[in-house]
Amino acid sequence: MSFQGLDFFNIDELFTEDELLIRNSVREFVDNEVMPIIEKHYLDGTFPYEITPKLAELGIFGIKTAEKYGGAGAGYTAYGLAMQELERGDSGLRSFASVQNSLVMYPIETYANDIIKDKWLPKLANGTAIGCFGLTEPDHGSNPNGMITNAKKVDGGYLLNGAKMWITNGTIADIGVVWAKVDGKVNGFIVEKGMKGFTAPEMKGKHSLRASITSELIFDDVFIPEENRLNIEGLRGPLSCLTQARFGISYGVIGAAMQVYESSVNYSKSRIQFGRPIAGFQLVQQKLVWMMTEISKAQLSCYRVGRMMESGKFRPQHISFVKRNSCEMALECAHIARDIHGANGILSEYPIMRHAANLESVKTYEGTHDIHTLILGQDITGISAFE
Ligand code: TGC
Ligand code: FAD
Hints:
The chain is of the alpha+beta class.
């Protein structure tokens, strides 16, 4: 049976026809093309490359990018809804799309010169080039400002040295948007596959996001031409990209939550114990109501933030609110769904453990739950917990 959706407050009424068209075409694609293959990829620890041309055809890459570069020029809400449907399939797919859209195409479109824009944006939009985003280092995760990767000015460009870790798509990427310090200040560079001294080994042994490639990036005196430097200085460069991606995640995880919720409703209505469906037990109903309530609240808050972003009237703290709230909500939905499915909840026949394991990463990346708590704590009190 194809996905029915959860729309307690008739939020569909608030979306434009174009937004619903994008949402529904990605929804159908996920039902038909992703659901049949994703569990095997997850168990095998492989990324489903075979669907990337179809994702490009659907317009998933460059949803917000200008049409002259091959993008769709759509708004934030359309982007969020597409991420919701992809993550209903698997967080690995949404990760792939988040990185390509928000962490690679966004900084290139916003901060790169015309040579780099013309060279890379059309290829990234049609899926013939894949990008990655290198901010995190082995010893600097929540505190990227402490990074030790550095670039030294030389004739015609820069020499890049250092290492990044936990980089989505790193091994398969044609380019990386890599952040490094120049004279103590964070700068962004476009690093291209094949540049001498650049390697990107895959990280193995993950119990989460198994249908996604995660890599190290290693730079050993990599020469980066001047034209590959982004026109932005300071931590606000990478943080502005994260604002875009965190919004997509906030919508994305709602998709995962909707999927485990729907499975829980169906399962509880068909599973008979003590002579009746378990859906008839008050404790099970309470769990379903919790999920439905929290998903609906997350839908409303993401809808509002999307519209605020479209009108330019948002603050990064609004994004921290939805990233923090949606991720915790979705992870808790997955835990509850696992419980409702009993022993069956651990089988790959149901989309429960995969989402639960994926959401553990999603709660951590792009700013951990606690980092977003502290950003909001500072907003309330005016006192920074980081200084
Ligand atoms: P702080 O002093 O607060 O800020 C430094 C400068 O940045 C500005 N700023 C922002 N600018 C744009 N957007 C935002 N969201 C911004 N937040 C802050 C700020 O105004 C300031 O500007 P200026 O001009 O005055 O210099 O910086 P801090 O060093 O105290 O750090 C704050 C903190 C801890 C919140 C920040 O470092 C942080 O967010 N840490 C979390 C790190 C993180 O999110 N890493 C993500 C790595 S990428 C990833 O996980 C991809 S997963 C992809 C996938 O597979 O989907
Ligand atoms: P740490 O920063 O070491 O945090 C450990 C714990 O300490 C957390 O609970 C944290 O909340 C807490 N903590 C830290 N500082 C404070 C504080 N001041 N107050 C209170 N508590 C604190 N990064 C990229 O750059 N690009 C990518 O593409 C990318 N993809 C990823 C894919 C996956 C699958 C994963 C798991 C991670 C990815 N990351 C990526 C890295 C991710 O952004 C970091 O893991 C994240 O920012 C947290 O950093 P850390 O793991 O070093 O944890």
